[in-house]
Amino acid sequence: MRHPEEQYLDIVRHLLARGDRRIDRTGVGTFSLFGAMMRFDLSEGQFPVFTTKKVYWKTAVKEMLWFLTGRTDLRSLLQQNIRIWTDWPLDAYRKATGEAISQEDFEARILKDDGFSERWGDLGPIYGKQWRRWLDAEGREHDQVASVIETLKTNPSSRRMLFHAWNVAELDRMALHPCHMTYQFHVAGLQDSGRKPRLSLMVMQRSCDILLGAPFNICQQAALLAMVAKVVDMEPGELIWAGGDVHLYLNHLEQAQEQVSRAPFAFPTLHLARQPGSIDDFRIEDFEVRDYRSHERIEAPVAV
After folding, report:
1. Range of the domain at 230
2. Is residue 15 situated within a structural domain?
3. 214 close to 33: Cβ distance less than 8 angstroms
């Protein structure tokens, strides 16, 4: 059987060989394709942490847990030693002030200075805010994640079990427009006797940095599926990922060539250590990833 990670490597190979060369928002330039899909079977505990380079799965899962809190401040991430969101507020600060501050000094000020953190560490109404506190025209807040979980428990055959982050009215206030936009759930096996229903998740990602973003996103989306399945007492089924503008940055070409030259190892397995009271009760200590073996890490710059 073909290794499921080959789906990802095929996309990278396609971009290297036939990607459409484009000028993008960042000015770096990309090879791009429009429309891609990957499917990962999680039914036997497989955890799609890619193996052709080292993926820091704990950082990915911590970011997902942070999204689920609804928080949008950089400080709460830095307190967990997660630096993946620093680039955007740092870039905004440098452009606004002209100060050539280092990332380390900027992060230190976010952590120590309340006023500085409030002014420059606010990422705007990004993912977590939209998922957990979507504000409607009448000023009412909507917890999309809680609504999906309630529907999974009470009406699992529904075709309306989704949440998304593309809030048009608030896009201009976000540090980065949502890339992984829409999360839709589906339950199979409701009529099967003797086994739990199978919960699957499809994620639509409008924009995907294939080298840096995709391995991270796939891992954390699989973690989310496992968490929701645990909360609603179902078995994980499939993670289905659909990409819109899937692109390889022109300053990632050598790294991509290196990655596609490597053969994947078997995926690790994921075990959740306890039954939480709700989706809000998960902690990183609950995630036991077993037998993760990977090739060496591949360094590449983030395009801001």
Report:
1. 5-70+161-290
2. yes
3. no
Task: Read off the tokens for 60.
Answer: 């990915």
Is residue 282 predicted with pLDDT exceeding 80?
yes
pLDDT in tens, 211-258: 999 999 999 999 999 999 999 999 999 999 999 999 999 999 999 999
Residue 47 covered by a domain: yes
Active-site annotation holds for 179: yes
Is the pLDDT at 304 greater than 80? The verdict is no
218: domain CATH number is 3.30.572.10
Among 16, 135, 179, 260, the active-site one is 179
DSSP 237-267: EEEEEEEEEEEEEGGGHHHHHHHHTSPPPPP
Q: What percent of the chain has pLDDT over 70?
A: 100
Answer whether residue 99 is part of any domain: no
Q: Count CB neighbours of 2 within 10 A.
A: 8
Tell me the C-alpha distance between 176 and 165, whole Å.
Answer: 11
Cα distance between residue 289 and residue 270, in whole Å: 5
Q: Report the number of distinct structural domains present in the chain.
A: 1
- Which tokens sit at 43? 């039914």
Confirm if 224 and 63 have CB atoms less than 8 A apart.
no
Residues 155, 142: Cα–Cα separation, whole Å: 19
Q: What is the pLDDT of residues 8-29, one digit of tens each?
A: 999 999 999 999 999 988 899 9
Our separate counts of H helices and E strands in the chain read 10, 10
Please report whether residue 25 resides in a domain.
Answer: yes
For residue 214, give every residue at least 6 positions away whose Cβ sits within 8 Å of its Cβ, in sequence order, or none.
Answer: 8, 11, 208, 241, 243, 246
